[in-house]
Design goal:
The protein is about 45% helix and about 10% strand. The strands form 3 sheets. It has an 8-stranded parallel beta barrel, surrounded by 4 helices. The chain has a two-stranded antiparallel sheet with strand order 1-2. The chain is globular. It starts with about 30 loop residues before the first strand and ends with a helix.
Amino acid sequence: MDWFSHIGSIKHEGRSSANPLAYKHYDPKAIIAGQTMEEHLRFSVAYWHTLTGTGADPFGEGTAMRPWERYSGMDLAKARVEALFEFLDKLGVRYFCFHDRDIAPEGETLQETNRNLDTIVDMIKQSMKASGVKLLWNTANMFHHPRFVHGAGTACNADVYAYAGAQLKKSLEIGKELGAENYVFWGGREGYETLLNTNMQLEMDNLANLYRMAVDYAQEIGFDAQFLIEPKPKEPTKHQYDFDAATTIAFLQQYGLAGHFKLNLEANHATLAGHTFEHEIRVARMYGMLGSLDANQGDLLLGWDTDEFPTDLYSTTLTMVELLKNGGLGRGGINFDAKVRRGSFEPEDLFYAHIAGMDSFARGLKAAAKLIEERLLDEFIERRYRSFTEGIGQQIVSGQATLHTLEQYALENRPIRNESGRQEALKAAINEIIFSV
């Protein structure tokens, strides 16, 4: 069935185009910094927001008009698969992501649930083979069902923990069958509401043990996907153990897991943690832990995860600076973990939203490449820290300095002259580059 019959293939028409169903900046074959845009950006569609999202919020029921919603149960699951691959084809996107419960409904028992998954996974596999589309990553939804009210890998109930392990095992098998390039661990409820009733040490130990079991089982079945953890500071729990990039890296190092995992970073999660997206990416890049990105943005006037499509060119530019300096994302990609607004309820709004996000990142890529080529930021930073390239600064960097030598140097009473950081001038220069590409 043709679910979007009124919409044709989305093409690049350039900046002068007035067609809202065309790319103004995203040209998949255009060469930027030695690679095509398609290779740099590796865009992915999120199954949950695109195919299963209803537009509901805490104050109102869903508004989304989706032609496949006239079905139910497994018929609905099959219709969504058809709609996904038509959407990907018309958008020209080669990757998608999903949670296990996005693609197939739960049954009365785990056995029935797994049979439902097997049916839909087989359908997805055939569609992938016919289209050439790939699975960027999959994951397990271990936060939505009431059984996970107290967490999954951090549950206070061993029966829940065992169920989570069984669900994870099946999810890894699905990733293997579909050739997932990555596998994401998103701890939706791996945190706490209050320390008054929480054994934090036991919960974190158990979570680390679940990750070790996953590593072992992936090796057992020959599933060689890159494992990713997605940090998030809060919502739904008040404090989640994977609060931000730095906290998550520390956890992995503490439990000897850093060699098996990288990070999947999301822009809206960064702002919920009080960081910018580029800060989180920089932290992961510094420690060799940058794996993949979830592209969205939050509303800074609202205190929750609004998952808006990314349209902030300043943010996409600085994000792409970090990615280019990282040498790309390897097996990762840029997944649109974003949803259309509640008032954007018609099916074509899904196209408008993805076009906006893809053009924003394409423009950010072009601006970032120009920033790096012109060395605007690099030269300024090099000048700012030049005192560490000679004399006492060089001794500090090389580890030769001691408190004795620092004191001796300071006692010479040399005049200290600081220089301006020129933040406003740099921001203005970045603006000029963004709007010139």
